[in-house]
Every structure is written in C-alpha cells, then in structure tokens.
Amino acid sequence: MTAVTQPIFTIKQKGSFYVCSFVAMNCPCELMIETDDYAVAKSLSKKSVEEALRIEKKFSRYREDNIVAEINASTGLKIAVDEETSHLIHFADMAWQQSEGLFDISSGVLRKVWNFKEKKFPAKKEIEDLKKYVGWEKVTWKPPFVTVPKQMQIDFGGIGKEYATDKIAQLFQLENIPTLVNLGGDIVCTAPPKSQKSWSIGLDDPLHTGEKCIKTLSMQQGAMATSGDARNYLLHEGKRYGHIINPKTAYPVENAPRSVTVCADTCIEAGLFSTLAILHGEAAQAFLEELELPFWLVP
Question: Which of 171, 144, 148 is nearest to 54 (CA)?
C-alpha cells in the first residue's frame, strides 16, 4: 500500500494572524490568515498547500506525467483537455491575441537553449533552429481539443503560479476570512483585515533582492504581481539578459525595466500585465500607463 504524502507547512501565531509558511513551485510561500481559531487556520492552510502542489504537479513543464507533458509529446495529434486546462489555454489564447503575439505559451521549446541557471549564452544557430517551432498561430485550439505541432512545447510558467495564487485565495474568500496569499511574490488580498486599516506589502529592491524594500504599499483587497530579472539573468559580452524571452525574436528582451509590479483584480491578470510590460522593453512605462492600473516600475 502506497503511503500518502502529507503537505509540509508550519503555522505560527503573529498578533491577530496565523502565518502559514511552505514551499511550492520552487519558491517560498506564505499565508497571513486573520482568525483566532487555530483549527480553522490549520485546516485552510492544509487545503492551500495541497492546492498549490496539485496545480504545480498538473501544469509544471518539468514533469513527464502531466497534461503539459502529454500535449508536448503529442507530435501533432489532437489532444482532449479537461475543463481546468481548457480554462488556462483559453486565457493564454486571449492573451496572445490581445498582445499581438507578445505573450505566447508556445515558446517553451526555447528553454532548451536559454538556461539562466547555467549562465550559458546560446549560439545563434541553436536559437534559430528552435525559433521555427514557436508561434501560437501554428496551434489548433478548438475546445476541448488542442493540436500542437511536432517539436513545439507549451509552457504555462508565465501564468501557473498566478493562477494558483487566485485559486488559494478563493478558499479563504468562501469562508469570509481576510487573508494575504503570497506565492513567491504573487499576491492576493482576499478582504481588508479587521485588525488594521490595510495590508502592508513591501516591494523588493531588484538590486538587493530579499534584503531591502524600495517601497511599502498599503492594500485592502485585490491582487499584485511582479516581473523582472532580479534573480534570473545572464551576462554576455558586458550585456545583461533577463529571463523573459520575446517569443517573436527568441531572445531576451532588451532595455526592459529591472522590475515591474502591477495591481489588478486577479493575480493571473496582474502577472500577465507585468510580464507584458517587460516584453515591451523601453516602452514598458507607456504600455503600463495605457492600462490605467496601479503600477510601480524600477528602470
């Protein structure tokens, strides 16, 4: 009989809150739960961690046993997807259309040559050889069926963690418990806290990430996401290349801000807009101003 793995997390009381800490999607995560009931905090924390790990398992590009792997291995065959996967593909399809191709989940194959952990700059031929497999216009999407051309690889990395943040927030919204959900900097405030006027959220200094805040925001309700190159980048011939790749050029964006934070109704929207701002390069600020959403930009 296979043992059931229990989610690993810790809970500590801090004033009017229970703070749950755990790791998911390769990043530190935290829940600030405003309740005086430990049993409720523990139960919802367990459900939250399980949900984060479920979404990670289902949509991670690093696994060989999930729907993403099945689609990427389909070699041009039509694949039927479930309702949740259909929802994410629909969002990605709309984002691709509205961004005129700047946001493109079909660019996953480029990760084969752009490895920001190894800090290795790929050869031009390596990039060009893979670029021909990128382009959402080559995908046939007729819900619930998706057909991805041979060699193409889809990647939900640009929206997966944000989607998980929204899903976890819904668990607390259903219980009417004010909670700040933070998955590696992707944030949702489910409701204004009762014990204080608002939630206080520090914006990381991209030059001293994890050590220093450049600003503290007050937020009552809504979502926030940050994109930038603080942690993932490589240097080549005196030039800095961030990890966000332009699917049209197959190269990292040039002259982009170091960091962009956007507030929106949902985290998946905030994450999309902050990523698109980076993809606009030196035109990031103009793009953000057109959105008419709160944003913070570090050049």
Answer: 171
- Does residue 254 register a pLDDT over 90? no
Tallying the residues shown for the chain, one arrives at 299
CA atoms within 13 A on the CB side of 84: 12
Helix (H) or strand (E) holding 42, with range, is helix 38-59
What is the tens place of the pLDDT at every residue in 108-153?
Answer: 999 999 988 777 899 999 999 999 999 999 999 999 999 999 999 9
| 267 within 8 A of 222, measured Cβ to Cβ | no
Measure the CA–CA gap between 63 and 108, rounded to whole angstroms: 13
CA distance 258 to 239: 14
Phi first, then psi: give them for residue 265, nearest 5 degrees: -70, -35
The conformation of residue 121, written as its DSSP 8-state character, comes to P
Query: Taking a C-beta distance cutoff of 8 angstroms, is the pair 163, 55 a contact?
Result: yes
pTM of the predicted model as reported, rounded to 2 decimal places: 0.94
- Relative to beta strand 17-24, strand 27-34 is antiparallel
Output the average pLDDT for the chain: 94
> How many Cβ atoms sit within 10 Å of the Cβ of residue 106?
23
DSSP structure string for 206-242: TTSTTT-EEEEEEESSEEEEEEESSSSEEEETTEEEE
Whether 58 and 52 have beta carbons less than 8 Å apart is answered as no
| In contact, 95 and 119? CB cutoff 8 Å | no
Predicted local distance difference test score (pLDDT) of residue 1: 44
Rounded alpha-carbon distances, angstroms, from residue 28 to 25, 49, 186, 294? 8, 12, 11, 25
Q: Using the predicted structure, report yes or no on whether residue 4 has a pLDDT greater than 70.
A: no
Task: Check if the beta carbon of residue 32 is closer than 8 Å to that of residue 180.
Answer: yes
Cβ distance 69 to 111 under 8 Å?
Answer: no
Complete domains list, the chain, with CATH: 1-61+160-191 (no CATH), 67-147 (1.10.3980.10), 197-299 (3.10.520.10)
